[in-house]
Amino acid sequence: MALSRLASSSSRSADLLKPLCSAISLRRPISTDTTPITVETSVPFTSHQCDTPSRSVQTNAKELFTFFRDMALMRRMEIAADSLYKAKLIRGFCHLYDGQEAVAVGMEAAITKKDCIITAYRDHCTFVSRGGTLLEVFAELMGRQAGCSRGKGGSMHFYKKDSNFYGGHGIVGAQVPLGCGLAFAQKYSKDEAVTFALYGDGAANQGQLFEALNISALWDLPAILVCENNHYGMGTAEWRAAKSPAYYKRGDYAPGLKVDGMDAFAVKQACTFAKEHALKNGPIILEMDTYRYHGHSMSDPGSTYRTRDEITGVRQERDPVERIRKLILSHDLATEKELKDIEKEIRKEVDDAIAQAKENPLPESSELFTNVYAKGLGVESFGADRKEVRAILP
Amino acid sequence: MAAIFQGVGAAAALSSSLSNSFDSKKFVSSPCRPFSVRKGASFAVVRSDGRVNLNPKGRRAQQLISNAVATKSDSAAASSSSKPGHELLLFEALQEGLEEEMERDIRVCVMGEDVGHYGGSYKVTKGLAKKFGDLRVLDTPIAENSFTGMGIGAAMTGLRPVVEGMNMGFLLLAFNQISNNCGMLHYTSGGQFTIPIVIRGPGGVGRQLGAEHSQRLESYFQSIPGIQMVACSTPYNAKGLMKAAIRSENPVILFEHVLLYNLKERIPDEDYICNLEEAEMVRPGEHVTILTYSRMRYHVMQAAKTLVNKGYDPEVIDIRSLKPFDLYTIGNSVKKTHRVLIVEECMRTGGIGASLIAAITENFNDYLDAPIMCLSSQDVPTPYAGTLEEVTVVQPAQIVTAVEQLCQ
C-alpha cells in the first residue's frame, strides 16, 4: 500500500487511493492484513541525555484494528464502571483510566508477556491489556468470587501473575521500588526482559522514586520508569506540585524521553526504544503526556480544578480512540458503519460481563482468613491442648 | 513446612536445652518431673528473716542447687548422644545459617547497607560477598524505603532476598513497604503472590547508643497481618531461625539484639532448623511461668539463679515466636504453674507483653491463680546516661521481686 502521512484527518488521500483500494483489498470489519503501514507520530519526541526515536512507526491493518478494539473496550469498560459506581455496586475508591488508554495499549504492543508491568491504583485498563478478562474486572470491582483477587483486593489491587502484571497499588509511589525490585530479579535470573514501573505526576515527587532510580542506575537494572503525566495529582495541577514539571528530565543522570501519551503509536515507539535501551544501559524514564477525562476518582467531579472547556478540548483534539478511528478511515480499512458495529459489539460484551459478574456470588466468610499466610496459619484456634480445637474461625 | 517441622522442632527445643553446654549465665534444665502441681499447693515461702521454710518442695529446691553446680558434667553426659558440634559466637551462627542457605538455594540474596564489601556492621555477612559475588550480596545506598521495596518486588517474582536493616530502628523508614506490600500482598492478590522475604537486623537497648538506636520494633510491627516475627537469643536458635525464615514462604522479620552478638555456644555440626512458630523451654519448673524473649532471657536466667536459691522453681520459656504466639507451649505451662510473669524489653504500652497478656487471659483465664504480671521497659525514649539506661530496662532484681510477689 502507498505510504500515507497523517497530519490531520483528510479525505484527500483517501479519495486518491479509493479506486486502488477497492480493487486490491477486501474491506472486512476485522482485518488480518499485515502489510506494513507507516504512520507518523503526532509530535516529535523530546529527549534528555539520549537519542530520540524516529517519528515514523511501522504498523499494519491488523494492529490498527487491535488498537481500536482494545481502546474502545477499555473506554466502554471504564464508563460502565462509572455507572456501576453510581448505582452503588462498586464501593470505596474507583479510579478510571478513560482518556489514557493509549498508554496501556501502546505499551503492550511493544513488549512481551515476559516483561513486567507494575502500576498504581489506576490499573483496570492495564490489567485488561495484560490479558485480564472483563469478568475478572467487574467481579473484582463488585467484590465477587470470580474477581482477579477473589474479591479481596478491590479496584486498586488487580494482579495477574501469569502475565507478569504486578498490580495494582494503593499507596502513591510505593510501587516504584517494587518495580525496581522486579527489574533486579530479571537481571538476577538473566531473563533478558524489562520492567515498566508506572507512576503519575503526583507520585513523581516521592523520595522513594529517586532512591529506587539511584539504586537501579548503580546496579544497571533493566527498569523503565514511566510517568503517566495527566497533569493533575488529584486536585493539584502539576505546576503547583512540582518545581520542575519536566518529569522526563528529573532523572538527572538517567536518560528520559517525553512522549505524546494520547498517541498509541508514539507510546509503542517509545516503549520499544526504552526496552532496547534499558537492556543495554540501565534505567530510563518515559514521560507520557496524557489526560484523564474523569476526575481523580469517582468521588472527585474533576471540574473544580480544571475547566470543562479544557476537558472537551482535549477530547476533541487528542482523543486516542478517535485518532485510531480517523487512521482506519483514512486508510480505507473499514467504513464508519463497520467501526460503529465493532463498538456495538464491545458494548454488548461489556454488558454481558457485567451481568455475569452481578450473578457471581460474594466470597464465603471463610475466605476472610485464607491467604493471610502462605500456609494458612491461624485459621484454627487451639485451646491449651493442641489436640483440642477450640474454634475454627469462620 | 511449618507443620512438618512441628514435631522435630519440639524435640529439638527440648534437646537443645539439654545437650548444649552453657556458659555461666545459663541454667542447666533439670530432667522433667512426672508429677504436676495441683491448684492451691503451697510453695516454699521465703520469710522476711531469710530462712527458707523447708517442705518437700524446699528439698527439691536444694536438689536443684546441687544440680546447678554440677552443670558441666551433667550436660556433657547428656550431650554425648549428639555430635560434638562446634563452638561459635552468635553472629557467626547467623552467618553460618545464611551461608548454608545461600549455597543451598541460588535464589537467596542479601541486601543491605554495608553488607557486601564491608562485611556487615555486625559482621553477620562477613565473607559472603567474596564467596557469592556482588549480585548476591548487594551493598545498597542509604535508602531503606526503596531497598526494602525492591526486596519485596524481587520476592514477588520468586527470589528469596534477606534484607538487613543496619539497626531495626531504621526500618521505620520502610514501614509502608513492610506493612502494605510485604504483609498484605499475598492477601490482596488473592493468593497469587507469595513474599518469601526475610527482614532482619539488630534492635533493642544496647550500651548507651541513644534513643533512636535503641528501639524495639517488634511492638510496632506486631499488628501487621501476614508477617511472622521471630526473635533469636542463642547461637543455636539464631542459626536455626535464620534458616527456617529463609525457607519459609511467608515474610519473616527476624529480630536480633545488639548485645547478644558475642554470645558463645556449642552448636551441632549437622543441618538443623528451628520451628518458626515454636517457643523454647529454657528451664522447666513448677511454681511460675516466666515468658521472655531475646536479651531478657538472660536477665531472667540470672534472676532464676537467685530465685532457686530462695526456694522457687520458675519455669522459663523463651517465646521466640513473637507473631504468632506459641499458645500451645505457653498454655501447657500455664496449666501447670497457674502463675505467669512476662519479662520483655518492649515498652509497657502496646508491646509484645501487652498482646501476650491479652492472649493468655482470653484463652487460659480459668487456669490462672493470680493476675498476669508483666515487666517491660519504661515508656520513655532510652536515655544516654548509663545509670538511666539501666533503669529503663528490666533488671534481674526486679524479676526476683516480681516472682516473690506473684507467688505469695
TrEMBL record, chain A:
Enzyme Commission code: 1.2.4.1
Keyword Oxidoreductase: yes
Entry GO MF terms: pyruvate dehydrogenase (acetyl-transferring) activity
Top class in the EC scheme: oxidoreductase
Dehydrogenase E1 component domain location: 69-364
Domain of life from the UniProt record: Eukaryota
Oxidoreductase is among the record's keywords: yes
UniProt entry keywords in alphabetical sequence: Oxidoreductase, Pyruvate, Thiamine pyrophosphate
InterPro entries (alphabetical): DH_E1, PDH_E1_Alpha_Subunit, Pyrv_DH_E1_asu_subgrp-y, THDP-binding
Pfam entry (one): E1_dh
GO BP terms in the entry: pyruvate decarboxylation to acetyl-CoA
Catalysed reactions listed for this entry: N(6)-[(R)-lipoyl]-L-lysyl-[protein] + pyruvate + H(+) = N(6)-[(R)-S(8)-acetyldihydrolipoyl]-L-lysyl-[protein] + CO2
Co-factor(s): thiamine diphosphate
Function statement: The pyruvate dehydrogenase complex catalyzes the overall conversion of pyruvate to acetyl-CoA and CO(2). It contains multiple copies of three enzymatic components: pyruvate dehydrogenase (E1), dihydrolipoamide acetyltransferase (E2) and lipoamide dehydrogenase (E3).
Quaternary context: Tetramer of 2 alpha and 2 beta subunits.
Protein name, UniProt field: Pyruvate dehydrogenase E1 component subunit alpha
Species in which this protein is naturally found: Gossypium raimondii
Upper lineage: Eukaryota, Viridiplantae, Streptophyta, Embryophyta, Tracheophyta
Automatic annotation (TrEMBL), chain B:
Stored Gene3D superfamilies: 3.40.50.920, 3.40.50.970
Assembly behavior: Tetramer of 2 alpha and 2 beta subunits.
Known catalytic reactions: N(6)-[(R)-lipoyl]-L-lysyl-[protein] + pyruvate + H(+) = N(6)-[(R)-S(8)-acetyldihydrolipoyl]-L-lysyl-[protein] + CO2
Function: The pyruvate dehydrogenase complex catalyzes the overall conversion of pyruvate to acetyl-CoA and CO(2). It contains multiple copies of three enzymatic components: pyruvate dehydrogenase (E1), dihydrolipoamide acetyltransferase (E2) and lipoamide dehydrogenase (E3).
Keywords: Chloroplast, Metal-binding, Oxidoreductase, Plastid, Potassium, Pyruvate, Thiamine pyrophosphate, Transit peptide
Entry keyword annotation includes Metal-binding: yes
Keyword Cytoplasm tagged: no
EC number(s) from the headed UniProt entry: 1.2.4.1
Name by which UniProt lists this protein: pyruvate dehydrogenase (acetyl-transferring)
Domain spans labelled Transketolase-like pyrimidine-binding: 88-263
